[in-house]
Amino acid sequence: MTVQTQSINRQEDTIKSTAPELNKPQMKLIVGGLIVSGALMVHLMMTQEAMHSLLLIIGLLLGYTLFHSRFGFTSAFRRLMSVGNGQAVRSHMFMLAVAVTLFAPILAFGLSFFGTDVAGYVAPVGVSLVVGAFIFGIGMQLGGGCASGTLFAVGGGRSVMFITLIFFIIGSTIGAYHLPFWTEDMPAAEPISLATSTGFGYGGAWALSIALFGLIAWITLVVERKKNAPKMGPVPSEKGWKRIFRGSWPLLIAGVVLAVLNALTLMTRGEPWGVTSAFALWGSKVAEVVGFDVASWGYWQGDAATALQSSIFADTTTVLNLGVIFGAFLASAAGGLFKFSKITGKNAAASVIGGLMMGYGARLAFGCNIGAYFGGIASFSLHGYIWGILALAGTFLALFLRPLFGLSVPKPRDTFC
């Protein structure tokens, strides 16, 4: 097994118990990545508001952290549903515990860097959410990664994920076109915030959230003991301070970093980290160029019309996404791991289907694993928890579909990286 296979992320359930040595840094790629990132930074400084430059830095750090830690959502759900390994899901709970601790005062007092209004991701609970999250859960298991996973896998050179990204964008655009049907014609309850809809306040909602995270972590431990689940194996890593730049980071450390960066995103642009709204924007702009009357879609009415008419670099989610891709690229090059991977007919087909399902599902569910699950739960929204449950259900079904495309399904004897 090569170091490149190990490097993809913890989303592909590699079954190697002994961590290989690290490769040498790819200095030419590092220099090239820094030049491109620097050029984008200069462009943003000259054409956009100050927050865009800060968001690019945050995006770079997000991508760097995601790649270095192999912090996965897709693989975490797959391992739990297939063999009962809940280590990565517990890292999610730790990350969310840090996030709600940071989000609570920010949301309660409206703390921001640029005087923008601050609001979390709180979305309705209805048919759209249920269908969208379930579809997304299937799609991320076929597409080989979630929304954030797709971006940092592209940055790491995993070739098939370029296909996933293209069809993710297409699916998100179709979902934007169909969204008024799902939100206006299908049943839905009003958005429910554990902080503002229940009378708990942010202090009570924080305490309830911490209790729920603890309960979920305990349940994963019970499942692990009952199924005698395999443990996650080691991955390549440096020692000491060098580990900051090369090798794998501990999942819990990565969880803290991601939570802090999400909180900084909230304080910078007034809303948490998101990914897939930019995909709908990119796809809609292309659709408009080829002749579709995108401006007439219900999705692009009101304030959203401004984004459609503006440069993509004015869109803060686009800036974050580009930062994630470049950050992952720099991290992979620092580890000597950037290398385009092989594409086969089966994994390409899975990427097409998975990308379409994730894009469409994310629009229906008011977000992906980042906007709905991470951002929603961190914002004390009930829809974030429901998203997670339905995505797990979609993951379970996808376990029976993955072998049809030559994709692996974890076995009880495997040791995961």
TrEMBL record:
It is a multi-pass membrane protein. Keywords: Cell inner membrane, Cell membrane, Membrane, Transmembrane, Transmembrane helix, Transport. GO terms for cellular component: plasma membrane. The keyword Membrane applies. It is found in: Cell inner membrane. The chain crosses the membrane at residues 29-46, 52-73, 94-115, 160-179, 199-223, 244-264, 319-338, 350-373, 385-405. The keyword Cell wall biogenesis/degradation does not apply. Belongs to the TsuA/YedE (TC 9.B.102) family. This is Uncharacterized protein. It comes from Salipaludibacillus keqinensis. The lineage of its organism: Bacteria, Bacillati, Bacillota, Bacilli, Bacillales.
